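Lab meeting, action items carried over

1. Structure of the two-component assembly. Owner: GW. Status: complete.
Input record:
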Amino acid sequence: MSKKTILNSQLSTLNSQFFAFVRKEFYHIFRDMRTMLVIIGIPVFQILIIGFAISTEVKNVEVAVYDPSNDEATNRIINQLDASEYFNVVRRLKSANDVDNEFQKGKTGLIVIFSEDFGKSLYHTGDAAIQLLVDASDPNQGMTISSYASSVIAGYQQELLQETNVPVRINPEVRMLYNPEMRSAYNFVPGLMGLIFMLVCAMMTSVAIVREKETGTMEVLLASPAKPIYIVVSKLVPYFIISWIIFILILLLSVFVLEVPITGSLVWLNVFTLIFIVVALSLGLLISTVVKTQVAAILASGMGLIMPVMILSGYVFPVESMPPVLQWISGIIPARWFNEGAKKLIIEGVPVRSVLKEMMILLGMAIGIITVSLRNIKTRLE
Amino acid sequence: METKNNSQLSILHSQLINKRYGDVQALKDISFEVGKGEIFGLIGPDGAGKTTLFRILTSLILADSGQATVDGLDVINDFRELRKRIGYMPGRFSLYQDLSVEENLNFYATVFNTTVEENYYLIRDIYKQIEPFKHRRAGKLSGGMKQKLALSCALIHKPTVLFLDEPTTGVDPVSRKEFWEMLKKLKAEGITIVVSTPYMDEAQQCDRIALIQHGKILSIETPEKIIAGFPEKLYQAHSENNYLLLLDLRKNPNVKSAFMSGEYLHIVFKSEADETIPNLKEIVPAIEDCFIYLMENGELRMEN
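Predicted assembly:
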């Protein structure tokens, strides 16, 4: 045999060995109901919960009006609002001071404030101001309310144009209260992905590797010619593939159930996410090299990874509003950078160069963690 | 009987191996050799250090001091090559419970860079007995069948030395007997077998045994020689209430030692046997008697 064929045959045994390990791992995953439930059930369930939490249906929103002008124009606008199926004008406010308390005390969803001498300035200058205060604590609802109200006003503007042939301009000034950034459920999708990948990649892989130590199969494998590094890396491969499938599943659910518009490049979104999946997998690998029992692996990944992701990645609390110390700590949490990058790619639809920083940070983390974990892999039992 | 200590014939050398876990001296100056094609038994109770010794010899843990070679390979420096040649069956059932019998066997064959077909002749007799259940998950097999599967997996690459750590623990008597039959067939194939067991009655199945207690080897010999070395006359007795009888015997100044062995009491007297003891009968000692004698007295009388 020439050198080349020897090398080839070595490579092929290596391949078949690796393939056997990967196939075995898939058996483990598919035959364990609990594992299947965690890796498929949780992502779908979480996305659907968010999906149901978002309601875009707007009907009979209570409207309060502050109308210091009280002329024909304002009354016609108020009547048209009231006539629409979306709005019920329930209150007329007596002074501007009442506006502040209005949202707190009732179910009011919209406050319409006319400028003084609304009608006069409309007829004389062709220009009048109207302010719409929207309760945007539910951002989708807030968006819908503001657009319906704006369209009623635009409709009145059209009528005026037809009646008088004088072009007028009513400027609705919309203000979203309680949620000025319009943080919507969309924003939860990247954060949720970060959480799910930590669960599937880091927790499930660390448990899967440690299970072999705990049940004693690692003892047999270590006493075999299989290299320890292949033993563990082959356990990561199925979780990598499954994570990617979960990612695609989440994207499909987001687009078709949550109606999240994915505005950025799909290819780069995939690349970016796969880098994060590698980071999460390497964290799972790292945990598996230091703990000895499955319970310890769950605790380590739960307390050490998933909790910080929930609290510090910007998933629940925005990073910008954290105290500086926590902001600094959040910098070492991979999910924070994934969250920020994915948000930019999914919601803002920016070109890939805008997430270069996040991508590089994640890549650096992946390389660092993999290096440490590979060094930690032992060729013996202790 | 030929001496097995000839280094040309021996396949395993262990020299002054020590291992300590905290305050516990798990192994103390363990030195022994195993001849090629021998069935070598490590006999001792739980906690004697058998598993630790197995793990050192299979390169799974490092000894604190001492040297060992298996099939000419150092267990520390040549561990990669060593792991290709040895077969190891840990004390705990260590196959994948959620994989079927067939899948386990195929998996281990691939891990050892071989195929089930290649060495099927070696495991045929064993595997045939579990083949009807080859689609059953390993976790659902009975204890005896699990051991047969584990043995098949440990044998699939035709190892030169087979390490079996308490293979018959938790296995029914019939399967245990079958298991030893299989080991004898493997021996005929030229495979050296190092096996540990807490069951003294199994010691007789080995070519040579090492009696091990508290990390120390008490004696290494053929079972026959160990029994022949029992220096006293041994008697057995039994009565309606063996426990009361045992208490009486222990108070008797003429009794050197007395202990329960199954449904009988085994007794060694200081001088003449006391004929008043019920159902007294002189018997040939078993390995268990020798083991207990060794624990109490340190050594047997060995003829050279």
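2. GW to write a short summary for the group page. Key points so far: DSSP finds 14 helices and five strands in chain A. The mean pLDDT of chain A is 85.
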